[in-house]
Amino acid sequence: MNVPHQIFVSVIVPIYNIERYIEEAIQSILSQTLENIEVILVNDGSNDNSEIICQQYAAAHSNITYLYQSNGGVSVARNNGFLRAKGDYVFFMDADDTIEPGFLTSCYQVAIDSGADIVIVGADFVHAHPYTAALPTCAQFLKRSFLNEYPDIRFPEGIQPCEDGLLSHRLLAVTKKVTVHPEAQYFYRQHDSQNHIRINEHSWAVLKQIPKWFEILTAFYDKYDLWDSHVEHLLLFLEHEPFNIRYFELPLDEEQKTYLFNLIHDFEKKHRILGKCDSKKLPITTPFRFFLKAKNSREFDDFYNRFKKRRAIKRKILLFLSKLIPVAGKRREFRTKIRKTYQR
């Protein structure tokens, strides 16, 4: 395939020891119905056969660029790939995932039709809009000129996990041109060697990075003078990233819970976040509201255990009552809503 004069989308793929899946990922990009695309493969110092595979594809396809860098992490790889991008829009794709053939066509069309700087991609990630606080990489279809307007907002180097959350949170704060595309299908592969699985096995390593997250956010909110205008956006980030994803999903012991509890509370108090916004009007959850008022992590955990029991009972009652709905379609719709509402 010849590289056209105008490139609609640049797909940037960071690669590290992913020989098992990289061909399938590249093939899914080459199979896109949108022809005016380029693929930028960034090898982050792999020591398996990933380099050979990538070089073979780059030699066979003129719209594939292959870059090699010494191991510097996924953020460095993505940022270096972006420096070479020429497309009107960019999409950062993981090397172990795939996209359906019409993915880029539909994302590009939605972006063009709406004039969006950010298209939130995928049914799993559009529900929070317009209160989206952070997004995974696979849910961000981005206008390149928009990114070029903010050269200081990039994937933070040396940060993982949450490098994608920190990027998206800051980008979402500097534009109102955001739209959603729930129909786009990105196929996220789950396997034991995934970065987030290996990282989350070392809870302290993740927790010790969180002060750096807060430093990045503080510098950003200071630079753009957003403490008053976007403090609610920041509050939602606190709920999404350190609370929902880390407090609940990491295997934390009591010491680690106390450490994370204090980190969040200290950051909130330092910047008087609750005092600057009407949290009652925000779609933050009851557990997070109590978390911010709790004296310590044990008090919160006691509350949350009681809260879960009450929700489980209510969920069971509502699912039982759904049997009384005579129309099958409406009954399924109601049950789906209940399961989503009471999943935590």
Give a structural overview.
Helices cover 49% and strands 12% of the residues. With 344 residues, it is an alpha/beta fold. The chain has three domains: 9-187, Spore Coat Polysaccharide Biosynthesis Protein SpsA, Chain A (Alpha-Beta Complex), CATH 3.90.550; 202-293; 309-341. The strands form two sheets. Strands 3-2-1-4-7-6-8 form a seven-stranded mixed β-sheet, sandwiched between helices. α2 links the parallel β2 (37-44) and β3 (64-69). 35% of the residues are buried. The mean pLDDT is 93.
Question: Could you give the topology of this structure?
Answer:
Elements: E1 9-15, H1 22-30, E2 37-44, H2 50-60, E3 64-69, H3 74-84, E4 89-92, E5 98-99, H4 103-114, E6 118-121, E7 140-143, H5 144-149, H6 163-173, E8 178-181, E9 186-187, H7 195-200, H8 203-207, H9 210-223, H10 231-247, H11 254-271, H12 286-293, H13 297-321, H14 328-341
Parallel strand pairs: 1-2, 1-4, 2-3, 6-8
Antiparallel strand pairs: 4-7, 5-9, 6-7
Helix pairs in contact: 10-11
Structural class assignment = alpha/beta
Number of E-state strands: 9
**Topology-level CATH name of the largest domain:** Spore Coat Polysaccharide Biosynthesis Protein SpsA, Chain A
* CATH architecture annotation name of the largest domain: Alpha-Beta Complex
Task: Please bin the fraction of helical residues.
Answer: 40-55%
- Write the H/E string, N to C: EHEHEHEEHEEHHEEHHHHHHHH
If you average the pLDDT, what whole number results?
93
Briefly, what CATH class of the largest domain?
Alpha Beta
N- to C-terminal distance:
48 Å
SS summary, helix count: 14
* CATH-assigned homologous superfamily of the largest domain: Spore Coat Polysaccharide Biosynthesis Protein SpsA, Chain A
Side-by-side strand order of the widest sheet: 3-2-1-4-7-6-8
Main beta-sheet annotation: 7 strands, mixed
% residues in beta strands: 5-15%
Compute the number of structural domains. 3
